[in-house]
Amino acid sequence: KYARHQQHELAQLAQVINDIDREHLVVLVGDFNIPRGEWLYHNFVNATGLYDPLRESTEPTWLPSPLTPGHSPQAFDHVFVRAPRHIQVEVSAQIVFKDRIRLSNGRLGALSDHYGIRAGIAFKNVNE
Q1: pTM for the predicted model, two decimal places
Q2: What's the mean per-residue pLDDT of the chain?
């Protein structure tokens, strides 16, 4: 039931992406709550033509807390890019903020239950 709901939401998002003129650069980032490599992920990428620089990575971006026992680390956070034909794009991404830090109470803890993703996007007009 939850996957069907996600599928419906992703279809709506895909429609918004596909309504953007193909001559515009599209960058879409965030926590999509869909694991990289699963069918919802592939359907969304195929429906939009978006490129994910981390598509081959199995490294998680979300870590379950003690409050979510039985869940395994997953890659729920994504960077998606779609470039127009006249722009050459190089996209890189890496997962960051994985180390625990000393909190104000003196204990070690994570910044979030999600890691960060640092993305680099370089582009140039191929008509130049």
Answers
A1: 0.83
A2: 88
